[in-house]
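Why show two proteins at once? Because comparison is the fastest way to build intuition. When a single record is shown, students tend to memorize it. When two are placed side by side, the eye starts asking what differs. So, the first record is below.
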Amino acid sequence: MKCKLLPQRWRAANCPFYACVLLLFLSSALHANDPLLSNTIGNDLDVIKISNAISTSLPQSTITGTVVDENGIGLPGASVVEKGTTNGTQTDFDGNFTINVSRNATLAISYIGFVSKEVVVGSSTKINIVLQEDAASLDEVVVIGYGTQTRAEVTNAVSQLAGPVLKQTPAISTSNALQGQVPGLFVVQGGSAPGFDDSQLRVRGSSTFNGNVPVLIVIDGVANRDPDGLNRIDGGDIESISVLKDASAAIYGAQAAGGVILVTTKRGKTGKAKFQYTTDQGFSRPIGKLGVANALQFMRINNTADELDGRPLGFPQELIDNFQNGTRESTDWWDDIIGGRSLSQSRHSLNVSGGSERVRYFTSFGHARQGALAVNDDKTQLRQYNLRTNLDIDVTDNFKVQFDVSGRRKYTQRPQGDTGGVGNQLAVTSPLLPAFINGDSNFPASGYSEFNPAARVTSPGYGKFNNDVFNANLNWDLKMPWLTDGISFKGFVSYDHAYWVEKEFNFTWNWYELDQNGEPVQRNSRTIEPPGLTQTFRQSNQTTVNFRLEYEKRFGKDHDLKAFVAYEQNEGAGNFFQAGRLNFESAAIDELFAGSLNQDNWKTDGSASETSRQNYFGRLSYSAFSKYLFQFNFRYDGSSIFPKGNRFGFFPGASAGWRLSEESFTPEVFSDLKLRASWGILGNDRVSPFQYLQAFSFPSGLSGNSGGYVIGGEDVQTLVPGVSPNANITWEKTESIDIGLEGSLFDGKLGFAFDYFKQNTTDILAARNSSIPNVFGILPPSENIGEFFNEGVDAQVTYNYDNRNGFNFGITGNLTYARNRIEFFDEVPPAEGSEFQKLEGKPLNSQLVYKYIGIYRSQEDLDNNINYPGAGLGNLIFADLNGDGTINGDDRYRYDAKAFPELQYGLNLVANYKNFDMSMLLQGQGRVKKTVNNEFNASGGGNNLAYFVDRTYSLSNTDAEFPRIRRTGLDGGVSSDFWYRNADFLRLKQMSIGYSLPDKTLEKLKSLESFRLYVSATNILTIFDALGEYERGDPEFTNNFNFPQLSTINLGLNVGF
């Protein structure tokens, strides 16, 4: 009889006995985790058991199927076993399987790193199984700097987010999809204008007072210093995101002080070509509206200000009566300009993956679009295109090559002026003025000071911004068993190019009034500044070469060693050019040559830069008995921005872990329990380069545009020295300490991770303020003298439930708290008795403000308190903190303004029932403040929030919550702690509901492997908003007069074929 071997399966009935025995041994070596083989092969081969297993397996029907992940990609080597028997098989390279089972059998499907699943066969002959990733698995592969580890091996604070979780939030900017998802990562979205809505990222808060050190983005192993690097990537291309939060980031040396985010993109898998197409169409509307005053409220509050100032009332009673009786109508600028309008958006993504055993590929194309929100706005738009190809080639069994190419084109356009211009005008424009003549949007009225938001967007002026990026990486992995087992030579060559073209054209816009016949006529035109055109060109290039020698070895059964040493070199270059002209006579030709011929109306600017780096680094990892873990890494960085002798810095890191769950004294309820700790030195070179060189500049404005002085009646070109150079500057250094406890219980159903961290930054570059006298004569240089401290905690808890009856759910909660203070920066000592003004020892962003102790509500209050110039009834009362009997600048104190949240948290829920799926994300922030005084202003005719109107001091409302409003400014223009308000919030950030066609339906369709319809929404509901009663806009935004926060609803489709 001829022996027949099927892929991933043996048939004993058709083979001689000795061939079966040999085949079992070979299969056990290849598939140690196969349940069939693990039940029949032990330390000794039990022939009787094998024979029994074979003889009692009586298949009666043949089942075929496919095992895929959530993206429809086949899982090769997945185990498929008939429950209660030893009958089983494994999937082939495409995830396909064939198995003979008894009637009404139940199949148990498992795959490393995925949640196991059971399926009742019933009458089906073809079954498609989708497995979900198991985030709690100890075999989960975690991406770390220049390598990977299993979750059990990790000794550092590393948080990882899977790509499918990221896709739950349908954001065009990838950074926005990270909100509330990752412990230790602060994400704040400061605006939502199309193309200008990227979030600000900080890992565990701030690490220095010398500017905001950006997070280092590493894409497929290559560091990218572009702050927009994360948003270059289509979210659908991302396999996982890892955040290095502690000394693990030291492997990136002087670029790592702000934390590191590692992005791994998807790659092809062996099998036939599989296509995935995803599209969603959505509409966005503002979450809420600015609660500005109506006409009657506006006139009342302004008249109150005039009355208290002793001036004639600005609005006569006759005008008030006209609005009161309806003769004239109040204008709600928000309703007229925004109203019920929606911003449309769409996304499309198509990818294909597959390949042979030797060559695999993943290719994707993405397109995203957003439109305008305001009436008459035909300019605001975003168009974005993404393209990626990842190619894997196994040249030989020991030599593998990866070649990746990606690019993005981003085109953004808006009306002239800043992106928040329309929102700002909605907030300050008088409600007494109509938005349109006779309600016709084709005829905008004058508006406040002729700045009608509806008219402004009709101007031929615009801002156009184009950004193209291109990246190519070549990676290799050469195993060298001819030298010794476990040694390999790896590396990559990367090229990155970015190009920006910006064109900003300002021109006049028209507004209308009614003539004596009641017809709209154009009266005047207006622009923010003289009609002009400015064009800007920027580009940057970056080349990186990396060589690594890696070694991996197991000694005996209980000792594992991994190590690598590497060399990396990076060279970057960039240039900038800008030109502009003013006084365009016509908008028909928006090119520079059409502007003024007078050279006084021309402007040019330009610059060029070059940087280079050399880095030597490595890592050593050791594990004993799978429970004692040790790791050491180092990086020796050199940068051209520092002077010779100080160009290189050494940045070491060390960590250790103890897997308590492997000890006999640990309760069995713990599936895993690990205590870990880390220490390391991180660096920061994101500072002004070449401070060791003397800089010079051409002065401007001294003699027309000559850039010099007039000597003897003639213009003389002049160079002016800048800040004094410092030949001793070097790196800023951050010492990072982390202690963590992580684990899981109840067979991995409940997982947790808790970390305490502390960061102490020294050698911060800052100019001396105290130790160098003011009469020094020149600007002193920056020196490495500053110190900064940051500490906090982050935590995550997960729970996964699967009842095997088609229903399962998972919930993940995380929070991060970070608190900082400035330790030293050579601060000028405050005046005697005003030590409370010191910034040292206070948190970053602490402001000098007056201390509020009340409101002048009566003459008695004026008589019994120390008054400042201009103080009167209704003004705030300030404390005389230094006790000198006067209120002046020396009485201000350092107030913790908390401009950036100290606390962020998120709660993510996912659930599946048969063919339905649901996800929901709650996200919030705490211990953050915003000021409300910007919305409290009656000067210049601007409007106010309605909330203040009946709550401000007046002669008839002396017990008011807020002080009086002044036409001449707010309390003399001073700042006090009275205006800071808690800005905590909790919102339902995201929710989606989906339905996937069942396997039986797909089986009939044949050409489809997956089909899912879904509805998703973002920024759905603000559950708690500490500032909500003010109706001042979104609590997260830094400026509530900007483009409003948007709530979006999307209808989407995902098809696999």
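Second record. Ask yourself what differs from the first in the token line.
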Amino acid sequence: MWTWLKFASTPLFTARARSSLAANARRVSEPLATRSVSPTRASQSIARGVAQSRRSDAAPRSRQVNHHEPPKRALPSTVLGLPPPPPRPRLTREEMVARYRNPPHPHAYGFRGPPSPERLRTLARAERDRYKPASFTKGSKNAARPASRPTPPQKSSEDYKEKEWDVFVDLNRARSEPAAAIAHDDRSLVQFYHLLPPKSEPDPALLLTRFLESTSDESLSRYNAHAIINLYHSAQHWESSRSQKTMTSRHYSLLIALFGALSVITSAYESTLLPRRATPSALLVQMIPQAYSDHWKFIKLVAKDKEEAGFSTGLIDRYWLMRQESAAAVAIPEEERIYRRREFNAHLKRAMAYHRRLHVQEPLFHTDICSTLVSHGAEVHADHVLDQMGRILLERPGLDPLLRKVLWQLALTRSDISSEARSRFADVVNAHLTDAAAQDKPSSPRPPPRSVTMKSGEIIVDVAPPTLDDVYVALFRVVTSSFDMSTFEWPDIAQWARTEVTALLSQTHSSSHADLFWQHIILLATASPSALEVQATQSPDIQLGDDVYRRRWIFVCSLLAILRVCEAQAYSADANTRRVLSSFWNMWLTAHRASPHSCPAPVERAILLGFIRTAGLAGDETLLDEIIGALPTLQHLLLKYEDYVRTGPFGDSGRAGAALELGAAYVQIHARAGSLDWAGVCCAVHRAKTVTTEDGLNNYANQLMRHLLRLRRSSAAAELYHVLVENVIKFADQTRVEMCQVFALELSTFPLAMQLHDERVMPRTKMCAVLVALTRGVFRQRFARINSTVARNLVASIDHHEYTPAPRTREHAHFRWTLVTGVASGAHDAVLDLLAKRLAKSSDPSYEFLSRFIVGIAGQLLKQRLFRAAARLLDLMPARHPARARLITLTIVRLSRGTAYHVGRKVWLKHRSVWVNDRHRLSRAAVLYKFARFNARDPHPTATMTLRRQRLEPRRPDVAYRTAMQLLVRAGRIRAANRLHTAIQTAGHVHEKTASVLGNILLYSRLRPRRQRRLLRQVRAVFAKLDELCASPNFRPDRVTLNIVLKAVIHWDLAIDVSKLRYLFNQLIASGYPGAPLPIYLGRAETAFDMGKIQRVMQDVPRGPIHFARHVRPLYRQFMSAFRARGDWESTRILSRQVAALRDRVAERERVRLIKTSIGRSRARYAREHARLVSSAG
């Protein structure tokens, strides 16, 4: 309250605003029933409100919102007697989306939730009092009205009906003008409803329906949801005031209109016209349980009314749809989800029991229930669905066409059916199909199509009902795609398949829907999802009405189903699997030899490839030999299918998938026969190159390479291997890391490389070329880690084939990057084994090459904190290596930072003889070992007691002095650090840059520790130490000094607010730091502390290059922390985006520099080699 009064006293709060606020307060305090406003004055005020709302839509919306008075809304022109307002310009889709994505607060409209019944009564009384005749006023019956309020003429019930008709006419006019429908908000609808006298008994459902008809998707807003809620509550109150006997079809029609509104808003929600966070569906979902309970009350009272029979399922459907929508918008706990699922299943069982009890003779309601069960996916248990369907079939001897349609749809969509429920369902279906077949006659006419439209359930059936063939297809579709593989055993599958085939072959009925039957056979025959676009072409020599043909195809469908299951579980490779496959192969071969030309190529190809894949995966050598015995037929089939692939109706992905299967078939069949056709393999590989997805590449590599590994006899395997490696190079050149990894994962398989090399199938030179190509692919993606299996296989292949690139070549760099990337990807054990073998032989040509970049490998190991692997690498390093001392020092420093005490002590004791045996000349590693105990981050103060007594005269004084100063500061011995700094300055053997580094360490020590109540003291201490350091001759402030000073200042939150902090950041950007300045809303900020010293430090900073890691990133991080501590999230987000952009820019610049450097080095090497050859030739 004090904040609001303080704002009201500011000059921004004008006198006009105060007067309007006072008027609004008086209006709110005045009772609604006592307001006396004439119709003329009301019309003028509403007209002004309409004009003001138009101006406010055209002008930008103000931030000040009056929460006390609801905004003035215009009543329809037909009610007020005014001419219709001119239509507003229609909004474009971009404007509409922008408007709905940034909706104003609900309180801005004067709406604070659904109105209570008392509030509705008050509104109704106020609206009726405006138009009451004089005889109905309080006091004297003949009392006259005041002169300021003219008495309207008395109106009869016909006048009220005419007014109601005018309201509906205006709403229908708004239907043709979508922009005008926005004006019909919740308040206006409630006024329309309460304008009618009680004796007229208005239908709220009719009013709600007309409102929904007049509202288009483009004009949906929060008003629609509020209007629906208000009308529902008012109608609910109106119904509850009546007796229970009058709750008949009126309440039912209201519920239908309510769920029509839910469907309208749901469609708008799905079309992204409304924002996800502020959708009105969340408000409507809260009303559904109450509406559901009201509906069940209505069903109990009116149980004999058949008009509402199909509405129960529609109500459940809408209820579950809105529940799913609310669950997607808000995170719901798992317990709540389980509770909702159980609740919904209970509602379904109740609805089905109700329909089975009351409407047994009406199949339409069974259809409605089954459609609801089909459309809800995995939320409803599939066993319950099948049991209910079987129960309905048992109760209905004569299968209704609509119910048969639902059975077909159910079988096509359900996929989570257990074996027990499926067997029960199959028994019921077989019994029912037998009875239905006995009743059907071949000469019976085709039943006419039925068209059923339900407003509530939204079920429209305008196609011909399915026949017995469709039921067969549905049953086979369930068998093919819906097997629960984990619950079946092989004997059960074989027995079930034989039973089904026997039962289906015994059926001899006409095929009335042969085209639909044929289409689903093609879908069943195709083995890959990419071939779903195949359209069936009827051969002229096939008779569709032939019973033998239909029986043959029924057997084909069952066979394909069994092959699908066998292929999915072929890795078990037991004797029972092979026996089942052999028996089915004999059955198929007998049927194929009886009529070899009756089966089209796609279906025959699917069956043969299914047998080939299943037998190859199961390792059935005998069955593969039998398939090879039918080689002429298979060759003819493959050639025919190759022509079909070229001219078939495939898309890009479908053609590529067909080419993959074609290549797999060539490799399997011809390699088994010992005559692999190189032209066919090249054709398959060339067609498979069109695959541009990772799944296609994975499928391609998996199929071909797995068959090569299993068959172990392939004359052209080396050529195929080389072609695949070329694809690796192509995708590596295109910097497609994912595809290169997929190829390399299959191509770098160590057993395959071993096999190809040991059997002398691939020459040594070809194998080295393959490894160089893979190394090149790894080199191209050096900034991304590759798969650890790929890296390990590459290193193992290099080790096995003893591959050593020639010195001073491009392959040298690729090989080095392969080993370094292998270490970074987790294959350090294989890399260390390779180095141990190569470095143990001094005569190895790669000895000198490996000893050069061994420091880079050690750096990768230390970055990943693989300290024991780094220690092992030090043991492998030659004793005469020139970089051995530097590598040992680097290892000890990294071990000290990582607090690896035991490993560091072992490394020091083993390799300390590298340095000169002088106790007074200490190196950096010796300092860390003796005085920090390999804990440089948090050393113990006692361990640093003797540090100042030593004579620090190392070979590199800057590194040793900096390490000693850091240890003293981190141990908390600030005075000892000052004395050491004085001693170093007195000696005078320190460079200017080293003096700045040591001064920055001491300056930063003034911030340890930082306490909230001593920020001013710390700022003063930092500036005092800065003055002391600047007085010394060798100290020069740099950008690190500026960062330390800024860190001390910006943490002083009592004196530095957000505006001053932004001003300080803008000053740094103006001084040369990269980035963009922040906006300052209140003008130039006046600082409350002395800016002279900070500006002097900015001026003294040398104008050298700005390093991102040392200067820019620490500066941005501390400013982001300061803004976050002050609650300025806008500035924090801006700085976060800026630092991310700078990081990406620096990484790209570094990548380009490395590429140019490598290219320049390779060109220089080639130039030197060319000059040497020319000179030797001359």
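One difference worth noting in the second protein: The CA atoms of residues 159 and 165 lie 10 Å apart.
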